[in-house]
Amino acid sequence: MVNRGPKKAKIHVLPHLWFRNFWRHNKNYSRPCIKSIADDCVQSRSIRNGRYYLYHEDGEQLFCENETNNQHIYKLPNEVEYVKDGINDHVVNGKESVNPEKTGSKMAVWHKFKLKKGEEKSIRIRLSKKKIQNPWANFDAIFDQRIKECDEFYGNIIKSDLPEAHQSIIKSAFSGLLWTKQFYYFDVYKWHFGDVEEAVPKRSKLRNFSWQHLNNRDIISMPDKWEYPWYAAWDLAFHMVSFVEIDPHFTKEQLLLVLKENYMHPNGQIPAYEWNFSDVNPPVHSWAVWNVYEKDRHHSGQGDIPFLETAFQKLLVNFTWWVNQKDKNGIDLFEGGFLGLDNIGVFDRSDLPHGITRMQQADATSWMAMFTLNMLRISLELAKTNKIYEESVAKFFRHFLNIAWAMHHIGKKDISLWDDEDNFYYDVVEMASGTTDRLKVRSLVGIIPLFAVEIIHFDLFDELEDFKIRAVEIIKTRPDLASLISRIEEKNSDGNYLFSIMRGFRLEHLLKRLLDEKEFLSEYGIRSLSKHHQEHPFVFDHNGHHRIQYEPGESKSYMFGGNSNWRGPIWMPLNYMIIQSLRKYYTFYGPTYQYEFPTGSGNKLNLKEIANELSKRLIKLFERNIDGKFQYHSDDVDMLFTKDEHFKNQHLFYEFFDGDNGKGLGASHQTGWTALIANLIMEME
Asked: What is the pLDDT of residues 64-120, one digit of tens each?
């Protein structure tokens, strides 16, 4: 430790050793024990783990039990004398709340220092399965060896020809992901009703009552392990697309984890997040599964078919849940509601205003089109070794056609989610009167159709005779379906077919808005809302005014408690998907298919070059600007993080970024899905 403050200071450090309280609710286990066996050593012992020895230098040993302070919380007598907050009460308040016998199920070593400005002090601690005569003899050598191993580990992953600053970003992103792995335990049934021989807990609200099957007891990649550990299904999917670069085994385990029977609802829904498992996140799990499979195959040289097949079987159940629950009218138009985008809508899309009976969402329907293509692609891969999956190929092929058709034929007026006047996709609301209306908000909602794209080589279809016959029959009998899909009957010179909602005309016009600096294109990536709405707010007059306006920074809307803002800022995961989609389109169209970048500049680039330029703008967020600060630092940020030599090179991974100046917004202490910046650097072509 180092005193980085401006003057001499007292510093208290308390490394802890404790047992999670598993004995309280399991009568088969006795309480484990930690006890002092020397002034510089404690021994832990449990049925589960056997014996361990913790060695430390100096410091005072403090002991208590890892048991709740019932007296403080519930006004009930404590079952043990020295409860879990005993160490805190002793250190902070000077209470006699630690066990003088130096034994318990929780302990800490209390180190007290007075350090001058800039003074350093090290604390050496070692946990060992065996007794060690001299625990410090090879301590420094082991420490140096671990540092060397870490450097070698990243050296095998990160290309050495990358700029040193970019290598540092990648290391920081991956290290942050590793740091946010945490054990997560939540048994919903026990939380509601208590355990055997235990009083029923008093809950003011039985949250997640319909998820009583859910029992989380695993190491999970958390978006946030600092303030309050929690997991979210779509956060986890994005984490894994980065995590696969450093730990493919853990990555595949994580993706299968939330598909297991003690996570996935019996009806097929994937749990969203702890405070409301029934909320709806975008169905990106299949996208993550396929990305991880491909990346793992690229690194190892062999595809993990058992992983892919296991995931596919469970994703099929989840797909059915979406079809049954979010397309209640059976017309292949979806109403996901919230979809993780918080306040992107004019109103809460999960709680429609009175008088609106239905909302056909451009993003929900497009997410499902993407889900369908992901399942089609996985089916094709599995059909290479098991012809049974040829049936699934045909099923998802037809379903994709149906969704594409439905996006352009809504209700009796045959209204389309695509607006021919604006050349953009919008949500459509249906009123109790039977009328329909487009919500003409130019947001990521209208960009997400870009994600429903897949490039498939004709070799994959070549041996699927039954599928080819059925596909030709569909195209013959319903040419109106095939006409909505880009290039479904044509392959390019490389033998690739393009499966996409975006026909050439729609793609061209969507890109005009996407790459326009007066609309979506920022100097630092793609905004979540067009800047057009800064001067031209959208107002929906229905039982009062519902207004949405471009806000580059923190939200001014109280929707969702002002929790986050999709009304202007730049979000890394959606930017990553945009870039990935453009690369797929490039694979089909090739280098001669060019667009203006930025729109109106006269500068023509092909889609791969545009993807690279967008990547560069996002990477710029993590590069130093003319003031010598990382661009994401705000103007009033503490000088400690921008000037001090000990802190200025340490990266922060914000949730999202200002749409105008790139300043970091939201939580900065987590890594989460912003770790995708590492992918953008590594995947630059």
From this structure: 999 999 999 888 899 999 999 999 999 999 999 999 999 999 999 999 999 999 999
What is the three-class DSSP state of 312? helix
How many C-beta atoms surround the C-beta of residue 61 within 10 A? 20
User: Considering the domain boundaries, does residue 344 fall inside one?
Assistant: yes
Residue 679: C-alpha distances to residues 135, 287, 520, 673 (Å)? 41, 15, 22, 11
The residue ranges of DSSP E strands in 331-435, in sequence order, are 356-360, 418-419, 424-425, 427-431
Query: Quick check: is 48 in a domain?
Result: yes
Over residues 629-681, the pLDDT tens digits come to 999 998 777 777 888 888 899 999 999 999 999 999 998 888 899 999 999 99
- What is the pTM for the complete model shown? 0.94
Strands 16-18 and 106-115: antiparallel
Domain boundary among 456, 483, 501: 501
Q: How far apart are CA 151 and CA 139, in angstroms?
A: 19
Q: How many structural domains are present in the chain? A: 2
Rg of the chain over all Cα atoms, to the nearest angstrom:
28
Residue 294: enclosing H or E segment and its boundaries? Answer: helix 285-300
Q: How is residue 621 annotated by DSSP?
A: G
Residue 599 lies in a domain: no
Of 501, 518, 548, which residue is a domain's last? 501
Task: Tell me which residue range forms the domain holding 105.
Answer: 9-137
**Beta pairing, strands 125-128 & 181-187:** unpaired
**b/e per residue 93-131 (b: at least 16 CB within 10 A):** eeeebbbeeebbbbbbbbbeeebeeeeeeeeeeeeeeee
- The stretches of 10-163 forming alpha helices (DSSP H) are 70-74, 86-93, 139-155
Residue 249 belongs to some domain of the structure:
no
Closest by Cα among 380, 555, 365 to 461: 380
Q: DSSP string of 510-529?
A: HHHHHT-TTTTEETTEEBSB
414 sits in the region (left: phi over 0; alpha: psi -120 to 50; else beta) called left
Q: Is 69 helix (H, G, I), strand (E, B) or coil?
A: coil
Within a 10 A sphere around the Cβ of 425, how many other Cβ atoms? Answer: 29
Taking the C-alpha atoms of residue 356 and residue 105, their distance in angstroms, rounded to an integer, is 57
